[in-house]
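Subject: Protein record for review, amino acid sequence with backbone structure tokens
Category: Structural biology, sequence-to-fold work with a learned token vocabulary.
Format: Residues in single-letter code; tokens as whole numbers, each standing for a residue.
Body of memo: The sequence and its backbone structure tokens, given next.
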Amino acid sequence: MSPAGAQKSSSLTLVLMVASAASGGTLQYGYNLAIMNTPAVFIQAFVNETFLERWDMQLEDYQVTLVWTIIVSIFSLGGFAGALIAGPLTIRFGRKKCLLLNNIFLMTGALLAVTSRAAKSFEMIIIARVLVGINAGVSMNVQPMYFGESAPKHLRGAVSLSSAVFTAFGVVLGQVVGIREILGSEPCWQYLLASNAIPGVIQLLTLPWFPESPRYLLIDRGDKEACINALRRLRGCEVQSSELDEILQEQAATKGMRPRGPWELLTDRSVRWQLITVMVISSAMQLCGNDSIYFYASYVFKEAGVSADKIQYITIGTGTCEFTACILCNLLIERKGRRFMLMGGYILMTIWAVVFTIALSFEHYTSWMPYLSMACIFTYILSFGMGPAGVTGILPTELFDQTARPAAYMIAGSMMWLNLFIMGMIFPFLMSELSEFCFVPFGAICLLSALFVGLFLPETKGKSLSAITSEFHKLNFKGQDEKCLSQTTTQYQLGEVCLSTAL
């Protein structure tokens, strides 16, 4: 095969592998965020009817809202549980097999959701949301790891970022399927909640045909031949010695070391700032309020002055906006770098949060202000997609070695899901209590996040793990290095004094 043909085969294999893994992976996260928006009224009515039939009790509005908030937000607690079990599962079964086994949670959740109406049980919807959350929590951790370990260095950022592209695509897909003309109507809402099984089936049918992560095969399993075969299939040509040597170097550096747990990372000074960085950026991704907009999109647009009959179509625009931004980020990330995209995204989000606050404050005085408010929501989501949405998931792959990577993803995922749960619970209350100033806290978080990235995150584009580690070494051992330098200088000066005395 000619070099051009090999390159084409390599690109096709990699693209198909990414599409297969993501269809039942991060796409599920975006899809399950979006499908809960349209059927909100119908599920709330179902909850009320169930209480009336069982206990002859009519719920107050605030009680229905509370049950609905639990149904929506319990997805995040499921995701938190999924993030915690993702590390041990990837170590035990490998990246690919873990993604395949993860569909057990999805299929069980879909079955409970589709039968909940016939069983007259809103509790089944809650359990289904927990199980789907576990599925999303596992895939959000394992998929970027699988992609980052399978892609060549020059495409590592773009391939890892495709996880965010599929998350955004899942949001758009969920919004389209959720419109009243398709599955978002009163008779069909249970089928909408169970429709997440279809991408899972696609993954189960296609992913077994693709190779396991080459790094996992060599470093974790010690199978050099399987690693070379996997690399050959993914690259479409003979394995380059430089790429294999890099994996062998990482294997030698971690030889005899078992996979590390989260507590070991938390107490290891040599990875302290890598861990702080991952925890801060993962938390900021949710605390900026972007994903909460999808949970409560109808409410947000209603507050912005959009008529009720047009809201379901406008919400599709929010997902399309993030999807477009993620594709653009995918094209730019290997040119501009991670640090630039991340910091730039948060700075733009800060600006739009300020403009949105001004627009909400004057919407009753100026006729065109509601349109500016709506535009701010779109630009806020666009800015999020341009940086934080994609770059956040790449960082644990690039900042940690093979033994620490699963635990790093567990910690990052836990922070992300816990903060999503908190935001899902408090977002409606922020909207009602702070009114036109509801985006002020989000703007402050975006500004602080941009400052943190600018001060503490080095650029990782195209760098090996050892080069990135050496940059963080200055932060991790700053005081100690200065002390050692001071001791060396003192010893040198004492040597000079002794020498002059002897002379």
About this structure: The mean pLDDT is 85. Residues 61-93 form the longest helix (33 residues). The chain has 25 helices and no strands. The CA atoms of residues 474 and 480 lie 10 Å apart.
